[in-house]
Amino acid sequence: MDVTPYLLVQLSDPHITHPGRLISGRIDTAAALRHAVDRLLRLQPRPVAVLISGDLVDAGHPAEYANLRALLAPLLDAGLPLALLPGNHDAREPLQDMFCGLSGVLCGEPGATAIQYALDLPGPLRLVVLDSLVCGHPEGGLDESKLAHAQALLAARPDVPTLVALHHPPHATGLEVMDGMSLHQGLAGFEALIAAHPQVQRVVCGHLHRLTLGRIAHASVVSAPSTAHQLALDLRPGAPLALALEPAGWLVHAWGPGLPLVSHLALAGEPEIIRDL
C-alpha cells in the first residue's frame, strides 16, 4: 500500500544577525537560511510543520528578529505552521514581540517566563517544545517550574507518540567545549521526565551545529546541523572551539501508517539527481 508520510522539517541555529553583517566576517547566515527556506518549500510531500530549534538570531537584538521574520515570511505565506524555541543566543522578549500573534507561528504564551507548548500533528505525532534558555549563560537549564510544565504537557496526551524539542543537548558528546555548554541544570529531572513517559520516541535539539545521535532514558536524541555554519569535529581533550565551513543542513522527520518516526539528514546545495540507474 502506497502511504504518503508526514514530514516535520527541523531547521536549527540560523544565527541571523543584522542585514548585511557576516558571522566571523565570512558567513552569510541570512543567505544560508534563504536557501534552506527555498529548498524546504520545494520539498515533497509538503511538510506539515517547521521547527526551528534555537539560536534563531545571533545576539537577541530586535533588529535581528525583524530580519529573521522577513526571511521566514515565505514559509508563513505558504501556510506552514512554524514552531519556534529559544537558544542561548536568543532573548525571549524581543523574540515574542516579533512573532507572537502571527498566524501560524507558535512561540509560547506572550510574556511567559518560558516558551513551552505542545503542537498536535497528523499521523498522529505530538511535538512538545521546551525552553532550556538560561539568560546570560551559554549552558542550558530546566528549573522546577519548567519541568513541572513539561510534565503537564506530556501527561495531557500519554497515548500519542511524541517528539520533544529543546535547544541544548541532554547528554555529553565528546566535544569538550560544547559539553560545558549543554543541558546542566535539571538534567536528572529531565531524564526522569522522559523515563516516565514512554510515548516520547525522540528528543531533538540544536546547539551543537552538528548531527549527533545519543540517548536519554529510552528515547533517542538527535541534534540538527546548523543551516549556516558547522562546528569543527575535534574530539581531543582541550580542543578549542572552531567553525568548519562544511555543508550546512537540516533534519526531516518522517512518520505515518506503517512508518516509524525516522529522521533524515538533508544537506544544503542543489544536488544532481541521477534517475537513470
TrEMBL record:
InterPro entries: Calcineurin-like_PHP, CNP_phosphodiesterase-III, GpdQ_beta-strand, GpdQ_catalytic, Metallo-depent_PP-like. Transmembrane segments: none annotated. Residues 9-210 form the Calcineurin-like phosphoesterase domain. Keywords: Hydrolase, Iron, Metal-binding. It holds the Pfam family Metallophos. The keyword Hydrolase applies. Belongs to the cyclic nucleotide phosphodiesterase class-III family. This is Metallophosphoesterase.
